[in-house]
Design a protein that fits this description.
transmembrane helix, transmembrane, 61% helix, mainly alpha, 101 residues
């Protein structure tokens, strides 16, 4: 019983896609200013994406190495604590500051 509904739904989707494509092709072949601007912007987008792709292929490892910290520690090459500081502990003579200070 559900098969006719599925077939009808799929045929509606196919018909709407075909009608959209036929209208798009008709507009594409027209020498309208709107279509010309669309063609220019579409070609600019495609060329930019291709350029980004090739640039990432060439310089991707270099960029990744610049921002990837190598080594051991909490954040790669940084030590867990600074050697001249005692971490969160304060000296006995230090007074603790509050928000009012």
């Amino acid at each position: 019983m559900e098969e006719p509904w599925d077939f009808e739904f799929l045929s509606r989707i196919a018909d709407s896609c075909l009608s959209f494509l036929s209208e798009f092709v008709d507009d594409w072949l027209a020498n309208d200013m709107r279509v010309s601007i669309f063609k220019i912007l579409l070609s600019w987008l495609i060329v930019s994406l291709i350029g980004i792709h090739f640039a990432w292929k060439v310089y991707g490892n270099t960029v990744n190495d610049m921002y990837y910290r190598q080594g051991t520690g909490q954040n790669g090459g940084t030590p867990d604590t600074a050697p001249h500081l005692g971490g969160w502990e304060s000296r006995a003579g230090d007074t603790l500051k509050t928000h009012r200070d």
